[in-house]
Amino acid sequence: MQVPPRLTSPRLYHLTPVESRWADNAFSEQGRSVHVDAADAEVATSSGLIIGKHVPPAARLHRRSDCPGAGSGQPARVTALTTPLRSDLAGLNCRRFSDWLRPLVGHGPRQHRALYKALMTTGRWAPEAVEEWREVESVRPGTLATLAAVAAAVQHPPVVESLTAHEPGVGTTTKLVIGLADGRRAEAVIIPMRGGRHATVCVSSQVGCKMGCTFCHTARLGLVRNLTAAEIVGQVLAATAHVGARPRNVVFMGMGEPLDNLDAVAEAVAVLTDQVGLGLAPRHVTISTVGRVDQFARMAELRLDRVNLAVSLGSADDAVRSRLMPVNRSHDLAALKAALLAYPLGRGRRVLIGYVLLAGVNDALADADRLADWLVGLPALVNLIPFNDFAGSGFRSPEPAAVEAFRARLDARGLAVRLRMTKGDEVMAACGQLGDPALRRR
Ligand code: SF4
Question: Is the CB of 384 under 6 A from ligand 1?
Fold first, then answer.
């Protein structure tokens, strides 16, 4: 093979079959291998694009003598990626995505926005998605090839398992188990709404949780680690790709206490509500907490008061609540009520109060009265959630008659109340059931 004389230590990089297909698609040129004098270039194409982790700015690509354009004596145009490839692309809003993309492919903000929209609304950032990006208006083939090569190196964590439960008239509930780079797994649930016409995605903010709520399966894991913003948004993108449409709502009610990982949650919300991308309205995003009132001020600072706030209450009796939810020992009901009254809810907004009904623990009419008393003065919508059982829980689900009596009592006390239907319990996807013990492995 003839090596251009100017190269002292040339390296031949053979494209993988997938990369070759992109190169072919994008450039219709013959060369599938190039000589690059950058020791650590990872991918190169014969049209002069280099993508590598640490390609020095002075990197030069020389066309092979049998490639079109060879023999001019001039080095081919080189676009070197001096910014390291990043695996957190899903955690970037459009502005940060554009900042990252500019040195790679040039182009203007309009093209960057178009690509960002394609990425986020299809939920696909994978080699196979290149054909879809091709539809994006005004994107040059060279850009597609660059992005395709980057996508080969940077892919979203895969869905390693999906479990579905179908109920006639309700729709299909799907639990997605997503493999993370360190071998851990995150769980997200796609919940059908309005007979399956829309979807709500319930995302995890942590692997495991340290809050120790006794009625929650996740608590048994303890806290394994926080998820990054990219890993949180990645769950929504995986759900989007799975359903083939953007979800209507995203709720932070999966594994973890979101206020225990607030910075990543705030970044994820900024991405989810970025109008160029997924474009969720803030009122369609809900953050649920067990009552980490010490984080409420910070939530407002991070502009998370734009989205809905949900509080898991468990009981309006301090002794019972402390037994069910250890957080009550440091932030009791009086502190929680005071913090909620001071919280900048915004005009016409209500705080969602989640109340898990446990037979013989908190489902008596006296408990309903206590709850109604505690809620006086607070604009609230009560979500009643009959306990979803799991092996060894030590609790029982209430009888339907007890649930209805509890609901009717709250109704009679003038409260806005909603009974949350159980969805996905047969695949351990229902509320409070996430957290397969295998998530703790490694
Ligand atoms: S209910 Fe929420 S905060 Fe409590 S242990 Fe489970 S995941 Fe953690």
Answer: no
Based on the residue annotation, tell me whether 187 is a catalytic residue of this protein.
yes
Q: Render pLDDT for 270-287 as a digit per residue (tens, 0 to 9).
A: 999 999 989 999 999 999
- Atom number in ligand 1 closest to CA 212: 5
Catalytic pick among 19, 42, 187, 257: 187
From 67, 94, 213, 431, the catalytic residue: 431
Asked if 272 and 92 count as a contact pair (C-beta separation under 8 A), the reply is: no
Strands 50-52 and 171-179: unpaired
Rounded Cα gap, residues 66 and 60, in angstroms? 18
Q: How confident is the model at residue 361 (pLDDT cuts 50, 70, 90)?
A: very high
Identify the CATH number of the domain defined by range 159-440.
Answer: 3.20.20.70
Task: Decide whether any atom of ligand 1 lies within 6 Å of the 290 Cβ.
Answer: yes
pLDDT digit string, tens, across residues 120-165: 887 766 555 555 555 655 556 566 666 665 555 455 668 888 888 8
User: What three-state secondary structure class fits 190?
Assistant: strand
Measured from the CB, is residue 213 less than 6 Å from ligand 1?
A: yes
| Domain range list for the chain | 89-153, 159-440
Which has the closest alpha carbon to 146: 79, 91, 61, 88?
A: 79
Q: Ligand 1 centroid vs 258 CA: distance in angstroms?
A: 9
Distance 196 CA to ligand 1 centre (A): 27
pLDDT at 279: 93
* Distance of alpha carbon 223 from alpha carbon 161, whole angstroms: 22
Q: Identify the pLDDT of residue 389.
A: 84
Q: Is 431 marked active-site? A: yes
Spatial CB neighbours of 307, under 8 Å, sequence gap ≥ 6: 269, 273, 282, 283, 285, 286, 287
Instruction: Please tell me if the CB atom of residue 430 comes closer than 6 angstroms to any atom of ligand 1.
Output: no
Residue 35 alpha carbon to ligand 1 centre in Å: 55
Nearest in space to 138 (alpha carbons), one of 111, 116, 119: 111
Tell me if 313 CB under 6 Å of ligand 1. no
Report the predicted TM-score, pTM, of the whole model to 2 decimal places: 0.79
Mean pLDDT of the chain: 76
Cβ atoms within 10 A of the Cβ of 74, count? 9
Tens digit of pLDDT for each residue in 240-281? 888 888 899 999 999 999 999 999 999 999 999 999 989 999
Distance 366 CA to ligand 1 centre (A): 25
pLDDT for residue 352: 96
Distance CA 142, CA 155 (A): 20
